[in-house]
Structure prediction request, 226 residues.
Amino acid sequence: MPLTERPESERPREKLLDRGPEILTDAELVAILLRTGLPGQDAIALAHSLIQEFGGLYGLLSAPPAALKAKLGLGPAKTAQLIAVLELARRTLREEMAQGVSLASVDKVRRYLKLSLAHREFEVFHALWLDARNRLIASEELFRGTLTQTSVYPREVVRRALHHNAAAVIFAHNHPSGVADPSGADEHLTRLLQEALGLIDVRVLDHFIVAGLSEPYAFSERGKLG
Prediction:
């Protein structure tokens, strides 16, 4: 039955406003975005089926636009709303990092990188440029590659560091294979970038590898940053 035929106490929007968002299920929160369902399937049921089909809430919200558009019941308006939610989350974390990145806030960096890179179908090499107080200056995709590799040019990385007048940087790249372990080439590249940026006094604080929904691999935590 349509949501409007449910008792008010069971309608997601009313529950959120009266009792707070934390009590709602994932499906109920998504239903608020969808607003309507399909014939014989209300918005909550549609949201539940979409969450299952995409492998969870994150899988749904980070799905490529083409994949969302292909699903029955997701027209342009619903697709745009789902994409907007993820982008708002990214921008919120980016604003928080602009206040400073410390050991206490490393989880914000991880979440931001997962939201930005986990869903990518090809490799990208990303940089978070920081000032002398470790506040975010810019979040920048530097290079884009194929399903299995990305070519990274240290000279261009140095040029971008100078452009942003950065004092430090956090690198990240994704492994579409879903395996976060670094390759020998990843470790060699990290050392090469440290050496190149060291010549202009830019510190490499970390290098993360993002692979699907697992926790990003951090070079600093494995003793792989000199």
